[in-house]
Amino acid sequence: MIQKQSTPTGLAISLLCACALPGMSAYAQAMNPDAPPPSSNSQSVAAMKARTRHNGIWKWAVPPTKMNGMFDDHDPIGLVAGKLIPADCSFNWTDPDTHNLYCFTSATSLVYFLDSPQIYLAQAEKTWRALKGKPSNAR
Question: Among residues 12, 63, 74, 139, which one has the fewest Cβ atoms lying within 10 Å of its Cβ?
Fold first, then answer.
């Protein structure tokens, strides 16, 4: 029997979907507060009322202090596309080889990056040097 091995990307996507679905239903309820709650028992009514106090979907955690990521806290996937997209480091990744911190603007960008981190880092470094006017090192 052949077992399918889960990839880090597949696991990350599963976790993101599991976390986003409850937030989406709360957002839908907040958009129409007169709609009846999905369940009539008191626990879910109280939970729905607590959720409807918040409008929109918020990031899970924003760093309490300024984090210093590579590329002056710009998203590496943005750099690969040739754009300087600033990130607040609430989504980040540390390279296990160099221990450098990289900041991302969204979880989607991070998951996309994790498919081939070394390839994206090489492309981002090349673009970073071109955008900053530094000569590229030949490897």
Answer: 139
Task: Look at residues 66, 88, 139, 133 and name the one whose alpha carbon lies nearest to residue 121.
Answer: 139
Q: What is the pTM of this model?
A: 0.53
Give the Cα separation of 83 and 127 in Å (integer): 9
User: Element (H or E) spanning 2, and its range?
Assistant: none
User: What digits encode the pLDDT tens for the residues 62-84?
Assistant: 667 778 899 999 999 999 999 99
Distance CA 38, CA 61 (A): 28
Give me Rg for the CA atoms of the chain.
20
Distance of alpha carbon 88 from alpha carbon 27, whole angstroms: 24
What would the DSSP string read from start to end of 48-109?
Answer: HHHHHTS-S---S---SS----HHHHB-HHHHHTT---B--SSEEEE-TTT--EEEESSHHH
Q: Are 73 and 93 in contact (CB under 8 A)?
A: no
